[in-house]
Each structure stands twice: as structure tokens, then as C-alpha cells.
Write a structure and sequence with these properties.
The complex is a heterodimer. By secondary structure, chain A is of the alpha+beta class. Chain A starts with a helix and ends with a strand. In chain A, 28% of the residues are buried. In chain B, α3 packs antiparallel against α4, α7 crosses α8 and α7 packs across α10. The longest helix of chain B has 30 residues. The radius of gyration of chain B is 41 Å and the shape is elongated. Chain B is an alpha+beta fold. Classes of the chains: A alpha+beta, B alpha+beta. At the A-B interface, β2, β8 and β9 of A face β15 and β16 of B.
């Protein structure tokens, strides 16, 4: 009789353990789909140059004589390899959309544009995740 | 004949009032100024104007130009030179007589002033003797005296007969509107039947009137009485009105009777008819003269727009309106007198085709719409909505080479706009007006107005027109 009860008890414990493992697997599954978790953007700046992997002279106004400017972004706690977009706008008109890889666990990446005389005016860069969700908007001007 | 009848059929009631009113004004001018020099000069000017029109019609450029110049200058001269005559005509009559009635022809002498002065002399008991000649020449009957050329005024007459004045003892001769001689000696009457209280002054008055058709006003120094000698009679005059009536009678300007009255009535009626004909002709030459066409580009004005709808765009902003009318009216029409109004009360969101007809065009009277182009306009309307936008600074200029603008924050960061749904859907950012980097110090705050484009967009109630920018500069690394 005692052996039978023990047997049932072990069976119940096994079933409960299996259920718990199954539930845990289900809750963590969405993290494996690219773009479904919000990327942790720890830094996003527009700068004049990148020295040794670090942005230099980040600003909100750039002279057109700078020739080239960069949008530098750093992501932390990246669960798995994914990608982001740097969408550049000039006066609300899309200028270029650049796809950049982001790798776990921490990753920095950047895009750049070449400045021309006709580019004077207000600009913005939208940093979007893989699904197109805007993580941050950086606003700046290109001046004389 | 048929043309005349058809022309009469097109007359509006306003045209009849127009002609009637101006004819009456012209007629009143005649009535007020007839018999004066002003009227003759006005006739002369009218003739000049008439010749100028003929010269212009014949293409005589210089002649037309010269006459036009003379008429323009003469109109000024008439006001300056005849200011006294004009003032007399207007002052001598009350308001009613300016607009109504036919007063007698302009008086030869200002009898009202004479009468008023004479009774003032009587009140002061200053003796006076005033001779007013009739048709006959009385120079032979007057002796001595001092030549005087003074326009009649109350003050002058009072001063002539002021007892301290060396010329007060004698008669003053009134010719026309002037006192031409003072201190004149009149022949004395030799009649025996005159009352004993009549003094030398009365005898002198009768002496002249018995020998001529002149009248003489006598002011008695002792009794302060006014008498009028005319022919063999010397009558006491009780008041100024009686004296005025008697003097007017003497000058032949009082209420006329008989053939004279008939002649007067004919003259006035003829003047009224001539005024009517002249103004009718003038009116026709202006309003129904040679038809002329003119075109204006007129901006379209929209009215009665539903407040919940916004005009997004219209196929045209102005329409070309071609007008017809007499050359004179067309030449005097300014573009701002022509307006095109479009009623949007029946329009809805989306595209609305609205016809433009003559009914949409408002014009000065006398002109007609010949053509409107285009004959319809396409007005695109949209619902009015509110939407919030981020504000971005539109920097311009340049910082010193070793400086960079590290940060700039805008307060408030977002602003709400009201406007067409379609426009607001395509907008993503509100920019400030250009802000110069040269204005910046190391760090600080400044205000910048918002640049809201297109103009049909408005700030939502309560939204600020300016934003505050807090900035921080840094040395370049």
C-alpha cells in the first residue's frame, strides 16, 4: 500500500516538473524571434568622426564643410544576433535607410552620410529595430 | 426710334434717380448764381469744356491739352476770385432757399445790409442820408461830395454817418454794391406843404426824389426814425423788413407780376429743362457711350466656408473677368473695384467643382460682365483636424572653428497644429524659423518663433508661437 502511494507521488512530481519546464520554455520562446524584444540602445549620437571605435565631436549642428557625418549607436544586453536600421531624413523626406548588424551580447555600429552643398538644413536619423520600430530619433542641422 | 425705346427699357430706377438728382443740382446752381458774374464764368468754362471735347474728338492734341489746362486752372481761379460772391450767395440765403424755391435774381445792391445798417443808425440816433439811384442819371443833381469806393458793409455805413466823421454831414450815394460818393449835397425841396418837423435832411431827400427816380433813405437824428423818399412822397418805415421790400420794389427784384412774372417762369422752366437735357446727355455719354471691353485678373474670395473644412488647394487663385461698358466708366474702373466671391456653403470634403458666373462678380454700377475665364474652379477641401508634432530647431550660420554645438533642447518639445487632415498626415516635424549659430554664447537659452508651413495651418489654441531653446556648446576635441 505504502509503495503504491509512493509510486503515485513520484508520478505526480514528475508530471508537475514537466509542466513547469514546458511553461518556462513557452515564456522564453518569443525572445528567440528577431525584433520581438526591445533592443537596449545605450548610446545614439551624431558625430563628426569615430576614433578607435568611439564617437568624437558629437553635436546637433554640423558645418557642411565637415564632409562626412556619422550616426553611432551602441546596444547592450543583446539576446541574439539581429539588425537595426539607420533611417536618415532631410526636411522630413527620407534620404537613406541603412541596415546594420547587431550581435550579442553588446554591439556598437554606425552609418554615415556624405554632405553636399545642397544638404544645408534640418536633418534627423531614426534608429529603428528589425521590425521598424523607432528606438530613438536624433535631430541635427547641417549649416554653413 | 426703336433703339431709343429699347434703351429706355434698360434704364434702372437708380439711373432715373441719378439723372433726376444731378439735373436738380445743376438747376439749383443756375437758380443760386444766375445774374452773377460767377454764373457767366461758369457758362464760359462749360463752353471751354465743350470745345475741348470737340478738339479731342477731332484729334487736335495740343488744342485739347491747352483747353484742358485752362479749364483745370480756371476752376481753381473761380473759387479764389469769386469767393466773396459765392459766400454772399450762400450766406444771404437760408438752407431751405438753397435747396428749394426760386428766389429773385441777384440784387443790384445788398438791401439787407443797407436796411440793417440804417435801423442801427436810427437806434443810435445818428442822422443819415443814403441815395439809391434808379434808371436816371442823377450826377447833375448832386453837388460836391468826396469820391468813395467802398463795398457796402454794416460797419462802413455806421462809420460814414458817425457824428465825429468829417464826411457824415451829407448824402452817401450807393451804386451797385458800393458806396461811390459821400458827403454829397442834394437839392432841397421847395415845397411848402411839408410838416414842420421835417428838417433839412428830409427836404434834401425829397428835393432829389422829386427831380429823379432815385430813392433816398433818411434817418432822423432827433426822432431816430427811418423814412424813405420816393418821388414826391416821404414815408416813415417802421422796420427793416418793410425797407427791404420797398428797396426790392425799387430795384425791380421783388415778386414779379404780369408779363414779367411769365417771363421769369419761362426762364426758370427753360433752365430746368436744359439742366435735365444736359445731364441726360452727359449721363448717356458716360454710362451708355461707345462700348469698351476691359479685362482684369481678379483674385477669388471664398465665403461661407464650413469651419470644419479647410481649403487644401484650388485650381486657380484668380480668374480673368472681361467687362463691358462705356469708355469713360471702363477707364475709371480700378481692379480693386472688381471682386469675385465664391460661396462654399454647399461644398464638402473632397473635390468641389464650383461654377463662376456673372453673379459671382461684383462691379461698379454701369458695367457688365462679358466673360469670366475659367468658368468653373476646382476647390479641394479637407476636414480640419488637430495633430501634435515634435519641434526641431533649424540652425543656420556657423560657430567658431574650435567650437561645436553639443546639445540643444526645445521647450515645449511638441506643439499641436490645426489644419487640413491631408496636410497634417504628410507632416512629421515643425521647424523653428532659422536660428543663427552666431548668436550663441557658451551656454544659454533663446527664443525662436515657429515656422508653420503652409499658411493654411494654424497653431492649436493654447499652443505657443515661440519655443525656448536651451543649448550647450563645447570645445572641439
Amino acid at each position: 500500500m505504502g509503495r503504491r502511494v509512493l509510486g503515485w507521488l513520484l508520478l505526480i512530481l514528475w508530471a508537475a516538473g514537466e509542466f513547469a519546464i514546458s511553461a518556462s520554455a513557452q515564456t522564453s520562446r518569443p525572445a528567440t524571434t528577431p525584433g520581438s524584444t526591445r533592443l537596449n540602445l545605450v548610446q545614439g549620437v551624431v558625430c563628426e568622426e569615430i576614433r578607435d571605435g568611439v564617437p568624437a565631436n558629437s553635436a546637433v549642428a554640423f558645418s557642411v564643410s565637415t564632409a562626412k557625418i556619422y550616426c553611432f549607436t551602441t546596444f547592450d544586453a543583446v539576446a541574439e544576433d539581429t539588425f537595426v536600421f539607420h533611417q536618415w531624413f532631410f526636411r522630413d523626406r527620407p534620404s537613406s535607410r541603412i541596415r546594420l548588424s547587431v550581435k550579442a551580447p553588446r554591439w556598437s555600429t554606425f552609418s554615415s552620410i556624405q554632405l553636399r552643398e545642397a544638404d544645408r538644413g534640418p536633418w534627423r536619423v531614426e534608429i529603428q529595430d528589425a521590425s521598424g520600430r523607432v528606438l530613438k530619433t536624433l535631430r541635427f542641422s547641417v549649416t554653413d | 426710334m426703336v433703339e431709343t425705346i429699347s434703351l429706355l427699357g434698360t434704364l434702372r430706377w437708380q439711373d432715373l434717380v441719378d439723372i433726376g438728382l444731378n439735373s436738380y443740382i445743376l438747376f439749383r446752381f443756375y437758380v443760386l448764381f444766375r445774374g452773377t458774374y460767377v454764373f457767366r464764368v461758369l457758362i464760359g468754362l462749360t463752353m471751354l469744356w465743350f470745345f475741348q471735347q470737340i478738339a479731342a474728338y477731332l484729334g487736335l492734341i495740343v488744342t485739347s491739352w491747352v483747353i484742358q489746362g485752362i479749364v483745370a486752372v480756371a476752376a481753381l481761379i473761380i473759387v479764389v476770385v469769386f469767393r466773396n460772391e459765392i459766400r454772399n450767395v450762400l450766406q444771404a440765403r437760408n438752407l431751405k432757399s438753397i435747396f428749394w424755391g426760386v428766389p429773385p435774381k441777384s440784387r443790384v445792391a445788398p438791401v439787407e445790409i443797407l436796411a440793417e445798417s440804417v435801423f442801427e443808425l436810427a437806434r443810435r440816433r445818428h442822422g443819415a442820408l443814403i441815395v439809391i439811384p434808379g434808371e436816371e442819371d442823377i450826377r447833375e443833381l448832386l453837388q460836391g461830395g468826396i469820391a468813395w469806393s467802398g463795398e457796402i458793409s454794416r460797419e462802413m455805413i455806421l462809420s460814414i454817418f458817425y457824428p465825429g466823421n468829417p464826411v457824415h454831414d451829407g448824402a452817401a450815394l450807393v451804386e451797385g454794391e458800393r458806396v461811390s460818393r459821400v458827403s454829397a449835397i442834394l437839392p432841397l425841396s421847395r415845397r411848402e406843404d411839408l410838416p414842420s418837423h421835417f428838417g433839412t435832411r428830409h427836404r434834401a431827400a425829397l428835393g432829389l426824389t422829386e427831380a429823379s427816380d432815385a430813392v433816398v433813405i433818411v434817418v432822423s437824428e432827433e426822432r431816430g426814425e427811418v423814412s424813405l423818399a420816393q418821388g414826391p412822397r416821404l414815408q416813415r418805415i417802421p422796420d427793416a423788413e418793410t425797407l427791404i421790400a420797398r428797396l426790392e420794389d425799387h430795384f425791380g427784384v421783388s415778386e414779379a407780376h404780369g408779363p414779367e412774372a411769365r417771363r421769369e417762369r419761362i426762364e426758370v422752366t427753360t433752365a430746368a429743362l436744359v439742366s435735365l437735357l444736359f445731364i441726360t446727355g452727359f449721363w448717356y455719354s458716360i454710362s451708355r457711350g461707345l462700348e469698351t471691353l476691359v479685362s482684369f485678373d481678379v483674385p477669388v474670395e471664398y465665403q461661407n466656408r464650413n469651419p470644419g473644412l479647410e481649403i487644401v488647394q484650388a485650381s486657380v487663385n484668380a480668374v480673368r473677368v472681361t467687362l463691358s461698358g462705356s469708355g469713360t466708366l471702363v477707364k475709371s474702373t480700378r481692379p480693386d473695384q472688381v471682386r469675385v466671391r465664391v460661396d462654399l456653403s454647399a461644398s464638402s470634403a473632397g473635390e468641389n467643382t464650383i461654377p463662376i458666373t456673372a453673379g459671382n462678380v461684383s462691379l461698379p454700377p454701369g458695367l457688365k460682365v462679358k466673360d469670366v475665364s475659367p468658368q468653373s474652379i476646382l476647390v479641394e477641401m479637407d476636414l480640419t483636424v488637430r495633430k501634435e508634432f515634435p519641434v526641431q530647431v533649424d540652425w543656420t550660420g556657423r560657430l567658431p572653428e574650435n567650437m561645436i554645438l553639443a546639445e540643444a533642447a526645445v521647450d515645449p518639445p511638441r506643439v499641436e497644429l490645426v489644419g487640413s487632415r491631408r496636410i497634417l498626415e504628410t507632416m512629421q516635424t515643425i521647424y523653428t524659423e532659422k536660428v543663427s549659430l552666431e548668436r550663441l554664447r557658451e551656454a544659454g537659452a533663446l527664443e525662436a518663433p515657429l515656422s508653420i508651413q503652409p499658411a493654411s495651418l494654424k497653431l492649436a489654441p493654447g499652443a505657443p508661437e515661440k519655443v525656448v531653446i536651451r543649448y550647450q556648446t563645447r570645445r572641439r576635441e
